[in-house]
Amino acid sequence: MLSPSTIALTGFITWTLLLLVLMEIVRTQLVLRGKVPANGFTPDNAGLSPFMQRLARAHANCIESLPVFGGLLIVAIATDRASVTDPLAYVLLGARLFQSSVHLASVSSRAVTVRFGAFAVQMAIAAYWSLELLVAR
Asked: What is the pTM of this model?
């Protein structure tokens, strides 16, 4: 049976992959319809729809934070200390999914504030996990 930490790590990776797959599906359609040449994309989807730009940023946010949040989960799992991360693992994953979903929906001032709140939850959890994992028990 998988621990909550393992499920959260796998969920985070899967979410990141799903955002990438969605972006590539839309890009492929744009190429096949002749709207954008195959070499006409930039990493931030500049020149495309606002949704595509938000999608690129939401995916990049996942890529940027996966080494920190995923790394802590891996350390906990690898050192048999998932008891540290298990209680908040689903909260971290939920906050990540929520942050990305808000990012995809809007970049209004209110949405950015809400999105930051979800990220702050993740940072607080990571800081807590870092301290707990560093303390020898």
From this structure: 0.93
Instruction: Give the number of C-alpha atoms closer than 13 A to the C-alpha of residue 48, restricted to the C-beta side.
Output: 24
**Joined tokens for residue 46:** 């500049």
Q: What percent of the chain has pLDDT over 70?
A: 99
**C-alpha to C-alpha distance for 43 and 53, rounded to whole angstroms:** 9
Q: What is the pLDDT of residues 112-137, one digit of tens each?
A: 999 999 999 999 999 999 999 999 66
Q: How far apart are CA 55 and CA 76, in angstroms?
A: 30
Q: Which domain holds residue 60?
A: 4-134
Any idea what the CATH number is for the domain that residue 10 is in?
Answer: 1.20.120.550
Helix (H) / strand (E) containing 41: none
Residue 84: alpha-carbon gap to chain centroid: 21
> Which residue reads 């929906």 in tokens?
105
